[in-house]
């Protein structure tokens, strides 16, 4: 199997969160990906929501997907050097669990410098046969 890729630029506005989630679900369906589409959609929702919450004023950010036989990699690239933080859980906090979900569900994840900003990515392994 060859590697399949897609990239789309979105604005850092609340409406981009469901758009990104649906793009991931639609692409994984079209690609007949064996990976857990629900997990991928949940985690991309968290990454895009972080951009919307913390990167106001940017012209756009980029959502990238790459699917190989064994791995699905989803990356969100934005123009902010501010890195995401995995926070301790606080019982009364209404938000702040997104990166903890990424850390818990993704097989691998990380942050890389990208120009003046960063690329936050996660990978999901294909299920065993």
Give structural notes.
With 129 residues, the chain is of the alpha+beta class. It has a single domain, classed as Histidine kinase-like ATPase, C-terminal domain (Heat Shock Protein 90, 2-Layer Sandwich), CATH 3.30.565.10. It has 3 helices and 5 strands, in the order βααββαββ. The chain has a 5-stranded antiparallel beta sheet, with helices on one face. β4 and β5 form a beta hairpin. α1 runs antiparallel to α2 and α2 packs antiparallel against α3. The chain is globular and about 40 Å long. The model has no long low-confidence stretch (mean pLDDT 89).
Write the layout of secondary structure elements.
Layout: E1 4-10, H1 16-30, H2 37-54, E2 61-67, E3 71-78, H3 98-105, E4 108-114, E5 117-125
Antiparallel strand pairs: 1-2, 2-3, 3-5, 4-5
Helix pairs in contact: 1-2, 2-3
Summarize the structure.
The chain has 129 residues and is α+β, with helices and mostly antiparallel strands.
CATH superfamily descriptor: Histidine kinase-like ATPase, C-terminal domain
Strand pairing plus helix content: what structural class? alpha+beta
Whole-number average pLDDT? 89
> Approximately how much beta-strand content do the residues carry?
25-35%
């Amino acid at each position: 199997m060859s590697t399949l890729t897609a990239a789309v630029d979105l604005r850092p506005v609340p409406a981009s969160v469901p758009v990104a989630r649906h793009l991931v679900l639609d692409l994984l369906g079209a690609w007949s990906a064996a990976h857990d589409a629900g997990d991928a959609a949940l985690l991309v929702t968290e990454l895009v929501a972080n951009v919307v919450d913390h990167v106001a004023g940017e012209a756009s950010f980029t959502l990238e997907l790459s699917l190989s036989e064994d791995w699905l990699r989803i990356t969100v690239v934005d123009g902010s050097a501010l890195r995401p933080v995995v926070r301790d859980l606080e019982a009364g906090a209404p938000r702040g669990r997104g990166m903890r979900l990424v850390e818990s569900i993704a097989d691998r994840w990380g942050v890389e410098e990208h120009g003046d900003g960063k690329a936050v990515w996660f990978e999901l392994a294909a299920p065993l046969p």
